[in-house]
Amino acid sequence: MEARLKSGIWIKALIRRCDLAAIPVAVVARGDGDAGAVLLKFNGRDAGCFVLAQVRGQDGELLWMRATGPAAVEEADADAYIERQRRRDPELWVVEIEGGSAQSIIGEPIA
Asked: If you write DSSP's letter for every residue of 15-59 in order, what string do you get?
């Protein structure tokens, strides 16, 4: 079985990467520090938003899925999706990132 990084530690590393790249980042909702799932909201302001959800591949590898679809959506739609997910899983982490390239920030594949 593959050892997995605790969610709280992964979030701290993400914040550090964003800080080093001068990309605004905020933890919107704190989840379970050990094993909470993570949603990343990328806010492009006028360009719209998209939400990435953490998923596991067939071999257990970490992947990201564009949970709000392939195209950018209005911020209200992204927030509504996040709210629905938080009602299902109150231990969910939500991190909002302004701008920046999703691929360069998270470093894992986006499916």
From this structure: HHHHHHTT--EEEEE---TTT--EEEEEE-GGG-EEEEEEEE-TT
The gap from C-alpha 80 to its chain's centroid, in whole angstroms, comes to: 15
What would the pLDDT profile of 39-98 be if each residue is shown by its tens digit? 999 998 888 999 999 888 888 788 899 999 999 999 999 999 999 999 999 999 999 999
* Distance in angstroms (rounded) separating the CA atoms of residues 64 and 89: 18
The C-alpha angle 79, 82, 88, rounded to 5 degrees, equals: 145
Whole-model pTM: value is 0.91
How many whole angstroms separate alpha carbon 21 and alpha carbon 105? 9
The burial class, CB within 10 Å (0-12 / 13-18 / 19+), for 32 is middle
Contact 91, 17 (CB under 8 A): no
